[in-house]
Design a protein that fits this description.
603 residues; 4 domains; four-stranded mixed β-sheet
Length: 603
């Protein structure tokens, strides 16, 4: 249970700082729609609709209510209207119109807390107010709930922040006489402590905890809402009583797994905190990376690290990128201890109510940083940065790679199916974190996509795919590919790529300025065939280029470029009509950049 122990340690370290937003034990979150305000004597003072941006509310939960899915199981304090309203039946028809069971369960639990040694002024105030059974009436009078003028019942089609009125969740503000007390109960540390002690006093069922090795109250109802406040999937569940889960291994769930309530709470709350703080989602897959002792690590999943790169003279060179990357990684090495570990965890929804650990790995901190640096150095490629309006050297975010390899053009963007995205992200992750080789089938997909420019209406999308294919082929070759044009390179595929670039630019240069983004050159039209049968297809492209060369401003320069490349071919290799390797994409990109840079220098 390595990952559970690591998460438990995260909680123990993070809880030392009360300002970091870590959920207390026996607490969860809910999206509130209504905010009720009372005074400490239980008098109604007002109500309002909660802004959707501020809806996430910390609430106390019992062992049962924290895992509530159906049936009657009241929250200890903030809850839905059906639990809190003694006059619910007067305003609601149909679903749960008789809420007496819900209301009684809620009030009995609240009374038990109020009468305990761990009571709190907010509990007393809320209990006194709800005993009056006027909550629905007060909310209607305040204009928060809308009723039908004829029947006086709640309007069925009215929603509050997307939730039916009768299903709204209520949070409480208590106005105290002492102005230094926190009125927002969901942010009151003293209320947190009050419930933690009360809930602990009510716990029983002491058994051996398999995680800690201690005898303590155990739980078989583990928290949900792990990835977000609306997530109903659980990471640990034991409600299968049909015998299939344990058949042949254990006689009951107690033998299969026994985890203390405190350990479960701390472990789950730590995971929630890490995901909210530094998690990254790809469809239903959520990935989170953290270091032991809460050491700061690079934000690898979102790819935002390179945005901090300073705009200096080395910005468009590989050496400059390497220098920046080494300084960046070295900064993290200085913060790591010798025993620092890095954990990589991926969670996916096996079903709507089940959460599976799709990937989990532990690395030594030094190995993690080494693999990270190596990946970004080997996959770096020079490409146009629309934000900075210039070519820059940078590597690729995992989502970029998947979209380029498997995405399709939709509304001017490359988009990919969520399921396919998470599958490929899981395959790419070990390449970055563990130094594994790039899967060959991903490289092949990029090769085919980059070899089919006519599949994209927007030329810049093909350029994006081409850049990604070049960067990934460079990673596939462990970085053994230069960033710029090499006049001494004699690889057959590379030289054919140079010829394709010359033909593409030469024809495009003869177009009117407004036509360049609309018209398709013969080089692009025959690109796909060229990759499969270069010798035969080059003869076609060269023949169709001649009319454009006749009116080209620098015809002699273009012919010289073609001849220079042709002279470096070994005749038998030029005549080889077999499929080109991905190296031809490198040749195309190199020579195209070389020609544009040469033109700038000449101008």
């Amino acid at each position: 249970m390595g990952w559970t122990d690591e998460l438990y340690q995260v909680y123990e370290l993070a809880c030392k700082d009360p300002e970091n937003g870590l959920l207390p034990v026996s607490h969860s979150t809910a999206n509130a729609q209504i905010e009720l305000t009372i005074d400490e004597k239980g008098n109604f003072k007002g109500a309002s609709i909660v802004n959707k941006e501020d809806a996430v509310t910390i609430i106390p939960v019992t062992e049962g209510s924290g895992a509530r899915t159906s049936g009657v199981c009241a929250m200890p304090f903030a809850d839905k209207l059906v639990y809190m309203c003694g006059d619910y039946t007067r305003y609601v028809e149909g679903k749960h119109s008789d809420n007496s069971t819900f209301f009684s369960a809620y009030m009995d639990q609240l009374a038990c807390w109020k009468e305990s040694d761990y009571t709190h002024p907010a509990i007393v105030a809320l209990y006194e107010y709800l005993q009056k059974k006027t909550l629905m009436e007060d909310l209607v009078k305040s204009g928060v709930l809308k009723t039908d003028p004829d029947t006086g019942m709640l309007q069925t089609k009215v929603k509050i922040n997307g939730i039916d009125q009768e299903d709204a969740f209520v949070r409480i503000v208590v106005r105290y006489k002492e102005l230094d007390k926190e009125p927002r109960t969901w942010l009151d540390p003293s209320l947190y402590e009050s419930f933690i002690h009360f809930n602990s006093s009510m716990m029983g069922n002491e058994q051996l905890c398999y995680a800690t090795g201690e005898i303590s109250p155990v739980t078989y109802k583990h928290p949900k809402k792990i990835r977000n406040s609306g997530d109903s999937a659980k990471l640990i569940s034991s409600n299968d009583e049909s015998g299939f889960t344990y058949r042949g291994r254990f006689s009951d769930k107690e033998e299969a797994l026994s985890v203390s309530y405190e350990f479960s709470q701390k472990m789950h709350n730590a995971l929630k905190w890490l995901i909210a703080k530094q998690g990254c989602s790809f469809g239903s897959l959520t990935l989170v990376i953290w270091a032991s002792a809460l050491a700061h690590i690079p934000d690898e999943l979102s790819g935002s690290a390179e945005d901090d790169w300073e705009d200096d003279e080395y910005y468009d060179s590989l050496e400059g990128y390497r220098s920046w990357l080494r300084k960046y990684i070295f900064g993290y090495e200085q913060r790591f201890r010798n025993d620092t570990k890095v954990m990589i965890m991926g969670l996916d929804s096996a079903s709507p109510g089940r959460l599976s650990v799709a990937v989990y790995d532990e690395l030594q901190g030094s190995d993690f940083l080494h693999h990270l640096q190596n990946w970004h150095e080997c996959s770096a490629w020079i490409r146009y940065d629309s934000k900075r309006k210039r070519p820059v050297v940078k590597s690729f975010v995992l989502r970029e790679i998947v979209r380029a390899a498997y995405g399709t053009e939709q509304n001017g963007m490359l988009k990919c199916d969520d399921k396919l995205t998470r599958e490929q992200i899981l395959r790419l992750l070990p390449c970055v974190m563990n130094g594994r080789a790039l899967p060959q089938d991903i490289m092949q997909m990029l090769y085919h996509k980059a070899s089919a420019p006519l599949k994209y209406e927007q030329k810049y999308l093909h350029s994006t795919v081409l850049d990604t294919a070049c960067g990934m082929y460079r990673a596939y070759r462990k970085g053994a590919i230069p960033m710029a044009y090499d006049p001494n390179e004699t690889d057959r595929s590379y030289l054919y790529g140079c010829l394709l670039a010359i033909a593409d630019k030469a024809e495009s240069d003869t177009y009117e300025e407004g036509d360049r983004s609309k018209r398709v050159t013969n080089a692009r039209r025959y690109w796909s065939n060229f990759a499969q049968h270069p010798c035969h297809t080059w003869q076609i492209i060269e023949e169709r280029l001649r009319p454009y060369l006749d009116r080209h401003k620098y015809r002699s320069s273009v012919e010289k470029d073609i001849q220079t490349v042709m002279d470096r071919f070994i005749p038998i290799e030029f005549a080889d009509n077999s499929r080109l390797s991905p190296m031809y994409l490198i040749g195309y990109h190199h020579y195209m950049s070389y020609m544009y840079n040469r033109n700038k220098e000449e101008n």
